[in-house]
Design goal:
This protein is α/β, with parallel strands linked by helices. It is built from 19 helices and 10 strands. Strand 9 and strand 10 form a beta hairpin.
């Protein structure tokens, strides 16, 4: 997903409107939060009125007894105002904190659910680390605004407007002058605000860059360490982090200018109004209580403006974060369910597959066709092997059958139904795959195998493990099938990881089985065991096998030889060797270097 730092310059806090779908379900709680917010603000504004009454009425009475009684009443009124402020503020804090946590959790879940449904094309242009940054850093910024800053901003807006109205009513002439000065404050603030928005977006993008580097390197630690590149990668991350710091520093500096200017200009304007008020007291135009009320109202107004300037900066940052999150939510997968999906016919054994005159290129390489005029029919229950040099298009065929991508032209069919007309879940439920790079999740061995069929019983999981020759080594783990396998299966060998992946596919028991270098990570002994298990699993279902090691495909019903996206030959192992074409050359290259026993077995 390409980044454009300039986009933030044209945005504003209005970008937060993207959160409305996540806010609407909680209208009732938002109403309560607003009620408590207004009540807390009104309690604050009631304080200067009670103070004016205390000064003008509680301290004026000449009779000491009456004065004491009056003071008690007025102080009780002040305490009642403070207690109301405390209760309403606590209620407001809980409600807005709950809303912040709830809305952020919903937003994070919605973004993640949307991202995992994207086709592989999305991840060709979007780094995983950037997605993680948006799910963590950006949602945290949104949480800060929804759960705190926005509430503070609304509360101080109510208090500030209330204080301003009260000041205008009690001192109309003076406050008219002050308001004229405050208007001049707005214009420079708009300029600073635009710069803060632009730098906020750039800062978040630089943090995402650092996260992307970290995610990439941490997933490849063995390679980094084996090539002794730890220092280089640390320096690369440090440079990226330094860039993020520099942009954040500029953002903080501009934001500091904005805060300093707003507070200083507002405070100066209000001091002018306060000065005029003291002159009015000296001239007998207003009472001392009136002046005290004015002082408190001025403090409330200045404090509100100061808080609002801080909140405005938070809103700008959150607006940038919301833009980035909405970009993810707006991303449309190029592969989606049809409007009216067709059901796949029931099958008793394997599924039939057909690719007819397929032309396909990857979105990131539009000028280079991976498959061109490619046609292949696979009968139900047939085992077909795809062989050929790297880049011939073998794995692409599997990805098209799974509909990870759509072809540019031609047809891909499963059991006579074009894959574009089938619901993705129904299509992929019919297919099992054992990839070249086995994926192990950071959970137990039992749950890793059960991933193939989440509703499977424990005994079915164990049976699948036995079929894949994984039962013995799993049972030897400290906690057996409940043993935690570590992130990406770091506690297992490559062959053990592959056997768990095979057990997962066996447990799924699909009509169509795709094996993409399924035995590539196994030693000779493990390969023989797994090969036997795979041959048992392949019986009665359609199997498509990809292998560079030709010894694993020679028993296939048909071997399809690919080169540069074309089918150049089809036949059995013996037929293809006899034709002395590409397959024969590939076989000669491998078997000439193989052990004599293996070469003898292949020639048999």
């Amino acid at each position: 997903m390409p980044k454009d730092d300039s986009r933030g310059a044209a945005k504003s806090p209005r970008s937060l409107s993207g959160l409305l779908p996540f806010i609407k379900p909680y209208r009732g709680r938002i109403g309560l939060a607003l009620l408590f917010l207004v009540l807390a603000a009104m309690s604050t504004l009631a304080f200067p009125l009670a103070l004016k009454s205390l000064i003008d009425q509680g301290l004026i009475s000449s009779d000491p007894g009456e004065r004491v009684l009056a003071l008690r009443g007025h102080f009780l009124a002040l305490f009642a105002v403070g207690a109301a402020l405390g209760v309403f503020s606590a209620a407001r804090f809980y409600m807005v904190s709950w809303l912040g946590e709830r809305i952020t959790a919903d937003l994070r879940s919605a973004v993640y659910a949307h991202v995992v449904e994207q086709s592989p094309e999305f991840f060709e242009s979007t780094q995983t680390g950037e997605v993680l940054s948006r799910l963590t850093t950006d949602t945290t910024l949104v949480q800060t605004v929804v759960g705190s800053s926005l509430s503070m901003g609304l509360r101080n807006t109510v208090m500030g407007i209330g204080a301003l109205i009260m000041l205008v009513i009690t001192n109309p002439v003076v406050m008219t002058q002050v308001l004229g000065i405050l208007v001049l404050v707005v214009l420079p603030s708009l300029y600073f605000g635009r710069r803060v928005r632009r730098l906020s977006r750039a800062s978040q993008d630089r943090v995402a860059d650092s996260s992307a580097i970290a995610a990439e390197v941490l997933n490849a630690i063995p390679i980094v360490q084996s090539y002794t590149q730890e220092q280089r990668e640390s320096q690369r991350f440090a440079v990226s982090t330094e860039h993020a710091f520099e942009v954040a520093r500029k953002r903080s500096l501009v934001r500091s200018y904005l805060v300093a200017f707003i507070i200083s200009a507002t405070f100066g304007a209000l001091l002018w109004g306060l000065y005029q008020g003291t002159q009015a007291v000296m001239q007998g135009q207003i009472t001392a209580g009136h002046l005290g009320q004015t002082v408190v109202l001025v403090i409330i107004l200045v404090g509100s403006v100061a808080v609002l300037s801080e909140v405005y900066g938070d809103l700008l940052r959150a607006a940038g974060a919301t833009e980035r999150l909405m970009e993810l939510l707006a991303a449309k997968s190029t592969v989606s369910d049809p409007l009216q999906p067709r059901p796949l016919p029931a099958v008793n054994g394997g599924s039939a597959c057909r690719l007819a005159e397929v032309r396909f290129h990857y979105p990131s390489r539009p000028a280079q066709d991976t498959l061109h005029d490619f046609s292949l029919d696979i009968a139900a229950g047939e085992t077909v092997a795809l062989v050929g040099p790297s880049g011939a298009g073998k794995s692409t065929v599997l990805q098209l059958l799974l509909r990870f991508y759509d072809v540019q032209s031609g047809r891909v069919e499963i059991d006579g139904v074009p894959v574009q007309q089938v619901a993705l879940e129904a299509l992929r439920q019919r297919i099992g795959i054992v990839p070249q790079d086995s994926v192990i999740f950071s959970t137990s061995a039992l749950e890793n195998i059960r991933y193939g069929r989440p509703t499977a019983r424990d005994d079915e999981v164990i049976a699948a493990a036995k079929a894949a020759f994984a039962h013995e080594f799993i049972s030897a783990l400290p906690e057996g099938y409940d043993s935690y396998l570590g992130e990406r299966g770091v506690r297992l060998s490559g062959g053990q990881r592959q056997r768990i992946s095979i057990a997962r596919a066996i447990l799924k028991n699909p009509p169509l089985l795709l094996l993409d270098e399924a035995t590539s990570a196994l030693d000779a002994e493990s390969e023989r065991m797994v090969q036997a298990a795979l041959e048992a699993a392949m019986r009665g279902r359609t199997t498509l096998v990809i292998a560079h090691r030709l010894a694993t495909v020679q028993r296939a019903d048909r071997i399809v030889v690919l080169e540069a996206g074309h089918i150049v030959d089809v036949g059995t192992h013996a037929e293809l060797v006899a034709r002395d074409g590409l397959y024969a050359r590939l076989a000669a290259m491998q078997f000439d270097m193989a052990e004599p026993a293996l070469a003898t077995a292949v020639g048999a």
